[in-house]
Amino acid sequence: MMLPYDDAYYMKKALQEAEAAFEKDEVPVGAIIVVKDRIIARAHNLTEQLNDVTAHAEMQAITAAANFLGGKYLRNCTLYVTLEPCQMCAGALYWSQISKIVYAAKDVERGFEAIGAKLHPKTEVKGGVLEDEAAALLKKFFVKKRNLN
């Protein structure tokens, strides 16, 4: 039996955020945070728009979710993100004590796993959910960027 709200369902919502970033000429990474089958935060990269290197999708989603919950800890929450978090985002996710991270595409150069950044010991991680779709959007963005320069 397939649940209506599975990892693929939520990752599609994160991909919608990545598409919004793409439309704004931002690196197309999207993130959502879910608690009890309810989306409590939606975000995408805003580093160019805000002129802020810390404005990654995950950072925006962490802030929005903490505001929604009224506290800094994201226990019992799941982050769905279209690209494996970097070490900065992994550090913020560590401190948030998020329960689960589900990512789509692996970042072999800058992802937290490649760099050896640590997450909270209780955080569960799952990668590869809709990886092809997320990777294709990232590739499309960078091909477009290269062709403009």
Topology of this structure?
Elements (H helix, E strand, L loop, with lengths): L6 H17 L6 E6 L2 E7 L2 H4 L6 H13 L7 E7 L3 H10 L3 E6 L6 H4 L8 E3 L4 H18 L1
Parallel strand pairs: 3-4, 4-5
Antiparallel strand pairs: 1-2, 1-3
Helix pairs in contact: 1-6
Question: How would you briefly describe this protein structure?
Answer:
The protein is of the alpha/beta class and 149 residues long.
State the end-to-end distance: 49 Å
Mean pLDDT: 95
Largest sheet: 5 strands, mixed
Q: pLDDT below 50 for ≥5 consecutive residues: which ranges?
A: none
Helix content: 40-55%
Which structural category fits the helices and strands?
A: alpha/beta
Number of strands: 5
Measured on Cα atoms, how large is the radius of gyration? 14 Å
* CA-based shape: globular
> In what range is the share of β-strand residues?
15-25%
In DSSP terms (H or I, runs of 4 or more residues), the helix count works out at 6
Q: How do the strands of the widest beta sheet line up side by side?
A: 2-1-3-4-5
Order of helices and strands, N to C? HEEHHEHEHEH
Keywords, separated by commas or semicolons:
149 residues, five-stranded mixed β-sheet, alpha/beta
Structure description:
This protein has 149 residues and is of the alpha/beta class. The protein contains 6 helices and 5 strands, in the order αββααβαβαβα. The protein has a 5-stranded mixed sheet with strand order 2-1-3-4-5. Strand 4, helix 5 (112-115) and strand 5 (124-126) form a beta-alpha-beta unit.
